[in-house]
Amino acid sequence: MSKKIHLSFWQIINMNVGFFGIQYSFGLQQSAVNPIYDFLGAHPDEIPLLNLAGPLTGLIIQPIIGALSDKTWSPRLGGRRKPFFLIGALICSLALFAFPFSSSLWMAAGLLWILDAGNNTAMEPYRAFIADKLDESQQPMGFQAQSFFTGFGQTLANVSLFIFPLIFIGTTGKLPAWVFASFFLGAICSIASVWWSSKTTKEIPPTEEELQKIKSERISLFTPFIDIAKAVKDMPKVMWQLALVYLFQWYALFCYWQNSSKSIALSVWNTTPEKDMKLYGEAVSWTGLVNGWYNIVTFLCAFSLVYFAKKYSPKHVHFGCLLLAAIGFLSFPHIHNKYLLFPAITGFGIGWASMMGIPYLMVVANIPKERYGVYMGIINMMIVIPMFIQTITFGFIMKHFLHNDARLAITFAGVLLVISAVLTLFISTKKQVISE
C-alpha cells in the first residue's frame, strides 16, 4: 500500500462514524430482540437457540468477507473495504425496517438472521479499515474511536427503549408501537452513518505491485475458505491466547444480554412475562435505560483507555476492565432498588469499552498487513464461536442447573468474566508505539 499519512482526530472520527449505525443495530439486538421474543411467546430456555443467528452468521460471514476484501480493489465502488460495509449497511437497514412487522416467533427469528448477516458484512471490513488506514502509532486511537461509537450507538438504541414507550403508546399488530419507532430509527442510522464515513474517508490505494498481485490471483468459491485455513495455520501465538480469553468473555456477555430484562423484572419488579406482561414491559423499558447507561460509560471512557494502554500495556488494561465488569455482573442480580442498577452496571460499561478496542491492540502488531481482513475475520470467529457454544448449551444449563432463573444466569456470567480476566494475564504481546 501507499504510505500512511498522519490523520487528525476529526479525520479518525469521520472514518468511524459508520460504526455508530452498525452498533445502534447491535444495541437493538442485545436489548430489544429478546423482549420481542418474550412478547411473541418464547419460553426462557428457548431464548438461547433463538439467538443462534448472531454467532452462526458471524462465524460464516465475517472471515469470508475479510478474505474477499483482502483481494478486492474497486475504485468505482470506493476501494477495498467500503463496498462491503455499504452493502452490509443496506441489508441491515432493510431488515431493521421489516423486523417490527413480525407476526410470529419464527418470523422474528428469520429476520434476525438477515439482520445479523447485514451487520456482520458491514462490521468486519471496518476493523481492517482501521489497520489499513492508520499507522501503528494511531491504531489505538482508531480502535478506541470504534469503541466510542459502539457506546454511542448502543446508548441511543437502549435509551430509545425507555423514551419511545412513553411517546408511542399501545400496540401495532402483536408488538408494542415503540418497537416500530426504535427499529425505524435504527434503519435510518445504519445506512446514513456508513454513507457518511464512505463519503468523507478515502481508502489508501494499493501499490502497483499489490494491484498486480490482486489481479493475478484468481478468486473462486473456495478462495476465502483456503485463505482462512492458511491464516489459521499461520496464526500467531497471541491470537490463540486471546481466543481462550474470548471463550469465557463472550459466553458471559451472551448470558447477560439474553437475561438482563428478566433478571431486572425478578429482582426489582418481582414479575415474569408469564405473570404480568404489562409489568414486565416496564422492566424491559428500565433495562433499556440501564443498558443505555453502560454504553454512555463506554463512550465517555473509551479514549481514556488509550492513555492507560500506553502507561500499563493493553493486556493489563483489559484485565482490570474485565474485573470491573465481573464485579458489576456479580452484584447485579442482588439489587432490588432500580436506581442502584446504574452504579452496578458501570463496571460493565468500562469493560465494554475495553472489549471493543483494546484486544485488537494486543494482536495487530503480529498480523501481516496484506492479511488484515482475513485475520480480523478470524478474531470475530473467536467472538462468535463462544456465542454459538452458548446458544446450543446454555438452554440446558439454564433449565437444569440455574432453574430458569435469569438472576442466576447473570451471576454465572460474572464468574466467567473473572476467569477471562485471569487468562488475560497470560497473553504475551509485543510492545506497541502509541501516539499521545
Written overview of the protein:
The protein has helices at residues 9-39, 47-50, 53-70, 82-98, 105-133, 139-167, 177-200, 208-216, 223-233, 237-267, 277-301, 304-312, 314-331, 341-355, 358-363, 372-400, 406-424, and strands spanning 171-172, 175-176. The chain has a two-stranded antiparallel sheet with strand order 1-2. Helix 12 packs across helix 13 (314-331). It has a single domain, classed as MFS general substrate transporter like domains (Growth Hormone, Chain: A). The radius of gyration is 21 Å and the shape is globular. With 436 residues, it is mainly alpha-helical. The protein is built from 17 helices and two strands. Mean pLDDT is 85; it is low at 432-436.
Any idea what the shape is? globular
What name is given to the CATH topology? Growth Hormone, Chain: A
Order of helices and strands: HHHHHHEEHHHHHHHHHHH
Number of strands: 2
Average pLDDT metric: 85
Structure in a nutshell:
By secondary structure, the protein is mainly α.
Which helices and strands appear, and what pairs or packs with what?
Layout: H1 9-39, H2 47-50, H3 53-70, H4 82-98, H5 105-133, H6 139-167, E1 171-172, E2 175-176, H7 177-200, H8 208-216, H9 223-233, H10 237-267, H11 277-301, H12 304-312, H13 314-331, H14 341-355, H15 358-363, H16 372-400, H17 406-424
Antiparallel strand pairs: 1-2
Key terms:
436 residues; mainly alpha; Growth Hormone, Chain: A; two-stranded antiparallel ribbon; 17 helices; 2 strands; globular
